[in-house]
Write a structure and sequence with these properties.
99 residues; YaeB-like fold; 2 helices; elongated
């Protein structure tokens, strides 16, 4: 059975920022990023543990075409994935403990 997912307010904010940034620098890339992110989240609902563990119950997965990663947690008891943030690879990973 596929898991449901929820995107945190922090992740929504960062996704919007990434889309705007990419779109400003190259027309159409914001939409391509959004499509790849949605495909990745769909993969997570089908196999929530595809990404490597990061910290406690957090996992970090990578988008293929864009240098962004997705920090999320898996809640098996309610079959839900919570996306905590989406960030560029250059962001410092110690901050994810706080998110």
């Amino acid at each position: 059975m596929a898991y449901t997912y929820r995107i945190s307010a922090n992740a929504l904010k960062r996704i919007k920022q990434a889309i705007l940034y990419l779109e400003e620098h190259r027309t159409g890339y914001g939409l391509k990023f959004d499509k790849e992110l949605q495909n990745y989240i769909q993969q997570l609902t089908e196999g929530p543990e595809i990404a490597a563990p990061l910290y406690k119950n957090r996992r970090r997965g990578y988008l293929y075409k864009f240098k962004y990663h997705v920090i999320y947690s898996v809640h098996h008891d309610r079959q839900e994935i919570v996306v905590h943030t989406v960030a560029h690879h250059s962001r410092h990973s110690k901050r994810w403990k706080e998110k």
